[in-house]
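lol so apparently i was supposed to do this last week
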Amino acid sequence: MAGSGTDHLRPAEDVVLRVEDLVVEFPAGRGRKVHAVSGVSFDVARGETLGIVGESGCGKSTTARALMQLPRPLSGSVRLDGAELTALGGETLRRTRRRLQMIFQDPISSLNPRRKVRDIVAEGPRLWGLPAAEAEKKVDEMLTAVGLDPGVAAGRRPHEFSGGQCQRICIARALVLEPEVVICDEPVSALDVSVQAQILGLLEDLKERYRLTLVFIAHDLAVVKNVSDRILVMYLGKTCELAPSDALVERPAHPYTRALLASIPGAPVAGAQRYERLTSGEPPSAADPPSGCRFRTRCPRAEARCAAEEPAMRRVGDDQWVACHFPHV
Ligand SMILES: Nc1ncnc2c1ncn2[C@@H]1O[C@H](COP(=O)(O)OP(=O)(O)OP(=O)(O)O)[C@@H](O)[C@H]1O
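anyway here it is w/ adenosine-5'-triphosphate bound
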């Protein structure tokens, strides 16, 4: 299958999160379905930041939610430290899922406007049975860690904060539960550019301090390349390319990766202006994806084989994998 196969997964020892052949579909009426995620596999090593990038609608958020089992994937495997999340239910799933936390795109709407910051951040620890005094202490510690003064911030409500400050509160709410893996779904896309850099810097600091593993999802490759150790490029529910960030940026092998690099404004990647851009504006519908390689209808290199046969992931460099019949190698 295009963009699938699992040869590119690494030995289990260092891997904290391992996702195999993940499939998520949604009903689309009249018996049709949206093929949102169609056989995606990746792993994330402890302490690593894996970036997931692709245009809007390529299945990034659905992948993120499927990791949390919200909703459960149609098929595939999601293992956290070896525990198969797709097989867990009830209390065991709840307990295991605590070790995976998410941060979302729109911090303001993801905070309850009626509650004070103290209660928002303390909610998780309280649900987990932490005595009130200890929960308070943890809240103060986390608010300080995200750069807010607990004495000032804890008693206020979300509307009294800027977007960047609200994202700091969301980060505190996620980290107070001491997760191993934090899934950041477009965490800075809704913020002003100057604030974006501050939040990215904060995530980097917190990652070191709390030894976190991050999955960092964004449509903007310029942002993803700066924070990720490796990057997974998605297109219409499939993986196109998976590589260390430097290799992906310096030697992109998939025509789609090259098109994404070419579209970064301000040309921050040397040579990327020369890469061919996409041949048409909109991706096809995920309810009716093209046969063979899903990217072929917009690909400058497509040939007859691309319609007939799905490309499997294959190695094109040290730890660089691509799902393309005609990669740039
Ligand atoms: N609940 C749903 N019901 C039906 N279709 C859905 C649902 N959620 C997502 N989809 C569809 O699944 C596909 C993948 O969407 P998803 O939101 O995961 O993409 P994305 O890459 O995260 O895009 P964005 O950045 O715009 O959120 C899209 O075609 C989307 O329309």
